[in-house]
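W.,

You were right to be curious about this one. When I first looked at the sequence I had no strong expectations either way, so I just let the prediction run and decided to look at it fresh. Below is the sequence, 337 residues in total, followed by the output.
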Amino acid sequence: MSTDWVVTTAAERIGLDAQKRGEATFTVTNPNGRADQAVFDVVPGNGADPTWFTVDEPQRLVRGNASVAYLLKVAVAPGAPAGAYPIQGRVYSANSAPEESSVLSGRVMLDVEPEPEPVRRRIPWWVVAVAALVAMVLGVVGWLALTPDPVPLATVPDLLGKTEAQAVDALRRAGLTAGRVTHRHNPAKNDAVLTQSVQDGNAVAPGTPVDFEVSVALAAPTPATPANEARFARNTAPPLTWKQSQPFVTMWTVSISEEYCILRIGVPAPVCAWMLVDEQATSSPLVDKPQLAFLFPVSGVFPGLFHSGRVQWTVVAIDDFGNKGPSSAAATYQINP
């Protein structure tokens, strides 16, 4: 059975130095009682280049109930566009395929700052004067030979407060294009532009992309399969699938709870309670979750703890900044003993 890895990081953002280099530490925990070989890598998203990231010793032995730290080194290539790039750490067992045991960390934002303007050396005044005179003469000659039509510039419209559709339409009518659109969970200002990358009133070249951020009210996902109270064989991995009414959502957190019961002396019916056993982030509305080895009643004088065979799961949507929306309704399925 594959290890149920846990991967965390203390930092939510990665800053870079003047050479566009930085580091981040991810902690991988093996909550099981047996040792396993862990493989760690990085899942970049939204324009991040996989060649920017390296990990020393990506494969390590992690003892049972122990943790190891992986140092992620970042070296962004010169000329990379400025912006915030989301990445996640991923860990899986070396003796199984990544899709069978991989677990993702929470999202970490890599901040790439604009490159500084180059330092220019001062040029003697007479060189500037001669160059200006030559440029003037050449300009007059060129103007006399051929006077081209001036290239019209586009004025950036004010997008703040508009809906996402209105902002896209305003940019189109201004001769510009919508760039990267990010979404922040903010039900109080649902579907309203909060920020834009180019201030309104600026004159730019036609077709220039303008990024903007939109407030949204994340909807609760709807569990699809398995059907509520469906039955499966013991130790199987039924696929968990769900639907999201908002197409811009690309990340979710899935939580798995199992029902454990205890028999009490003098009480005819067992006392049961739900226990959270796993939680992970995913970028796909389909998750295969292998079940734990269930406990059955312990024979003898004392009552025993046992698994009822019922498994319950919920899923929540996450916005582009790691904020969670409302949880789905809990879906339950039954494992046959």
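Here's what jumped out at me. Residues 222-335 form a domain with the Immunoglobulin-like fold (CATH 2.60.40.10). And, maybe more interesting for your project: The radius of gyration is 28 Å.

Coffee later to discuss?

I.
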